Amino acid sequence: MISLTLFLLIITLLFLIYVEYSVGNVIYRVVASGEKKLNIFNGLSFLIEPLKNSFLWNWKVLDLNYIVIISLSTIFYKNILTSTS
Q: Which residues contact 2 (CB under 8 A, 6 or more apart)?
């Protein structure tokens, strides 16, 4: 059985990959010098963006809301994964 911490870490990494694919230029972006750089801080900042930006609570962009994704993932883990073992 996978631990909750590892499960949420995997969900977080998959979420960041999805956000980079869906939105673009969140983690891997062009800097002032014109070259592409990996900026992990921007990805981590995007995770808490729903606390500051009410737009991310719109029904059409709930897939980009980390709080919703992590809440649903935790419910899934507790009700589905732990009940089968």
A: 81
Q: What is the DSSP string of the chain?
A: ---HHHHHHHHHHHHHHHHHHHT-SSSEEE-TTS-EEE-HHHHHHHHTGGGT-GGGGSGGGGGG-HHHHHHHHHHHIIIIITT--
Provide the residue-wise pLDDT of the chain in tens; the chain has 85 residues: 789 999 999 999 999 999 999 998 888 888 888 888 888 898 999 999 999 999 999 999 999 999 999 999 999 999 987 876 5
pTM of the model: 0.87
